[in-house]
């Protein structure tokens, strides 16, 4: 976390979400503080991705409200999220596979550009200055995520782990206040997971971006998170620090199915039971 305990940037209050006869989230309440890394964990079907989709404006809850940066979001849709300062990555890669790394990340700068497409086509001086500024910002992000050597590579030629890093870079290009990461380490080997974990910490600490992530690798979660929220069948069953969550009896029985968990993240990505 990049500072001490600070004001909440995000609050979910009494959120209900249903699809047909299936209730996905039930009176869900939790808060994310400014500057922290918050992990949302729970078994498959617990409702984690639905929470991210609500925060991103893809789903609209039947009840409850979302408060972001002190304002209740009314008539909120996904198209509004970037303007508010909310960016995300997805479980499945959503990149332009036949474009270069640089061009993929540049697409994340659309809202930051001050000049029109016509100005760019006509190569007007101010438009050229703006284009240079956007490229400079992207180069800074590529450097932060150690992607400079791949900047001109076509994305489809890169490894899966690198493509996930490019998607992370594109989300950062929008300069978000809140970054939503939906299983950023899914499908990766141990080394790739450790690399992404380090980049998430770097983003949080150097850029001061608040992170809310869904992640199944509990050792990584325990290692990098300031705050963990645990869901089970659409309900919150625990909410606290990694140390608190490790010892929480309801988490251990309902989520892990064990009596005690000892996590040693620096040496293994597995939970020791």
UniProtKB/TrEMBL annotation:
Gene Ontology terms for molecular function: ATP binding; ATP hydrolysis activity
Database matches in InterPro entries: AAA+_ATPase, ABC_AA/LPS_Transport, ABC_transporter-like_ATP-bd, BCA_ABC_TP_C, P-loop_NTPase
Alphabetic keyword roster: ATP-binding, Nucleotide-binding, Transport
Source taxon at top rank: Bacteria
Gene Ontology, cellular component aspect: plasma membrane
Chain ranges of the ABC transporter domain: 10-258
Keyword Transmembrane helix attached: no
Pfam (any one): ABC_tran
CDD domains: ABC_Mj1267_LivG_branched
Name the record gives this protein: ABC transporter ATP-binding protein
Organism the protein comes from: Acinetobacter populi
Lineage of source species: Bacteria, Pseudomonadati, Pseudomonadota, Gammaproteobacteria, Moraxellales
């Amino acid at each position: 976390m990049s500072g001490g305990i600070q004001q909440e940037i995000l609050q979910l209050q009494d959120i209900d979400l249903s699809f047909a006869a299936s209730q996905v989230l039930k009176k869900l309440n939790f808060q994310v503080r400014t500057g922290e890394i918050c992990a949302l964990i729970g078994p498959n079907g617990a409702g984690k991705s639905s929470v991210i989709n609500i925060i991103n404006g893809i789903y609209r809850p039947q009840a409850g409200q979302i408060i972001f940066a002190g304002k209740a979001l009314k008539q909120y849709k996904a198209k509004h999220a970037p303007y508010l300062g909310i960016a995300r990555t997805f479980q499945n890669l959503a990149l332009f596979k036949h474009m270069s790394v640089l061009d993929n990340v540049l697409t994340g700068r659309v809202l930051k550009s001050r000049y029109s497409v016509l100005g760019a086509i006509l190569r007007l001086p101010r438009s050229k200055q703006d284009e240079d500024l956007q490229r400079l910002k992207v180069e800074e992000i590529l450097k932060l995520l150690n992607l400079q050597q791949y900047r001109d590579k076509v994305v489809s030629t890169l490894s899966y782990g690198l493509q996930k890093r490019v998607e992370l870079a594109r989300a950062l290009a929008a300069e978000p206040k809140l970054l939503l990461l939906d299983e950023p380490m899914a499908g990766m080997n141990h080394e790739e997971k450790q690399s992404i974990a380090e980049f998430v910490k770097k983003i949080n600490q150097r850029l001061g971006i608040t992170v809310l992530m869904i992640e199944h690798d509990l050792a990584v979660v325990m290692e990098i998170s300031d705050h963990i929220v645990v869901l089970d069948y659409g309900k919150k069953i625990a909410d606290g620090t990694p140390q608190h969550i490790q010892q929480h009896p309801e988490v251990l029985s309902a989520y892990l199915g064990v009596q005690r968990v000892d996590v040693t993240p620096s040496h293994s990505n597995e939970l020791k039971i």
